[in-house]
Amino acid sequence: MVKGLYTAYTGMVNEQRRMDVMTNNLANSATTGYKKEAMVAQAFDERLAIKIKDTSSLGNRPEGIGYMSLGAKIGETYTNWDQGGFQITDKPSDVAIGGRGFFAIAFTNKAGETSIRYTRDGAFTVDTDGYLRTSDGDYVLNQEGALNSLYGEDYYVQIDPNLEYAIAADGTISQNNEEVDTIGVIDIADYDYINKYGENLYTLIPGGQIVESDAILEQGTLESSNVNVVEEMVSMIQIARAYEAGQKMIQTEDATLEKTVNQVGQV
Question: Which residues form the Flagellar basal-body/hook protein C-terminal domain (predicted)?
Fold first, then answer.
């Protein structure tokens, strides 16, 4: 077995997956409240000697000291939760979260099934009945519904659509100097229990704990994506060069094998 081929192969697979992540980040660079993703991996030199008690690879079987890894170890994808910049829209139904926290949404899928999802996208609208909805038409939960994972008419944020309204930093909505409802904003105790669902929404993995958020809401503002387009483009160039290096390594190994079989083998 020519280990150089496997070393180049694992490196190319790793770079291909990194490219997929970077491409998704660039595609969502203008998505409200989007949090970019990145990948981690262990390089070949870090994997060269593996401890006897290390059971992290090859079917959880311990491996002896000096075992030579076949190449880079594909790592996991993680989410960067850094705060995105604020964009002022002056639209009263637009709300941005400053700090840690999520809006709770009563999400209805194409099959008509409703469940609770979470988002940082505060591009809301107010319908003719006064309900606060997302851009896809899903209901925004009030504080009681968000904290207790409940949904239904009693837990949807509703105001008088014919009156002006103001949203305070704690999510309280006021009309005619009276508090009418509160936008539900929650936080998750451990972000390892958050999973991306799609459509700029997140789901809570079993075991995740909902806690109160100390985030501050900004009315008439939206949180921009935290993707830096220039940084992502530079990373994509690096990925392309690393992938090309893997290709050249395979070509070199192939040329060596050809000489071994066709020339050395004839001696």
Answer: 219-262
Residue extents of the structural domains in the chain: 3-80+227-266, 86-223
Close Cβ partners of 255 (under 8 Å, ≥ 6 residues apart): none
Q: Looking at the DSSP assignment, which residues form a beta bridge with residue 32?
A: none
d(CA 58, CA 122): 44
Residue with tokens 């949203």: 167
Q: What is the pLDDT of residue 52?
A: 44
**pTM for the model:** 0.80
d(CA 243, CA 189): 38
Strand partners, 125: 133
Q: Which residue is listed with tokens 């071994």?
A: 260
pLDDT in tens, 51-60: 444 555 545 5
